[in-house]
Amino acid sequence: MAAPATDTEEHRPPEVARIEAFSDGVFAIAITLLSLGLVIPMRDNLGTALHDLWPDFFALALSFAVIGSYWMFHHRLFTAVVRYDRRLIWINLLVLFFIAIMPFSASVIADYGGEPLAVVVYAANIIGVGLASTALTAYVFVGRRMCASSVSDARIRYAVVRGLVTPCYFAASLLLLLIPVSTSTVELSWFGLFVVDAVVERSLGRAARAS
User: Fold this and answer.
1) pTM for this one?
2) What are phi and psi of 134, to 5 degrees?
3) Distance CA 152, CA 211 (A)
């Protein structure tokens, strides 16, 4: 059963704050664990060791950006949440599951980045986070189930579309493996997401903020 409906963040049930605090903790731990993969290998000189550490640093930087962006997305979403129920909690836990295994996926792409399967594993993790986050967003906003009635249609449209951009982009990047191209090409193509994301933000974000 959902908690009593309220229309302002100040009157949200305390359980909503607990869900958000727990989620913040999972995001923080996951992003901290990424640094554990940075271990300088034993080489004849520091320059060679740092060069050989590049795949690990690439995986850390990319995963840090992904987790950080999803934390911001999650934070913005929960500023609109004024109710909760068991389904919301379970969908949120699904999001956190995919966040929690990001350090593992980062280590896979760092150690086996030259293998197509490693690219698929990493992309699948990102797709999982994206789809789960979009499901959470839709559950909160569609029909104003868990948000205030004052939330605009433009904000809802923006949140759902923005949530689908990342999983769709990573799914499309896996099609490059069918050409085939090198796995490094697929990995470098992921940085194009920042351009796509900026376009979506420019086209829909302004209307959402103005509403």
Assistant:
1) 0.86
2) -65, -40
3) 6
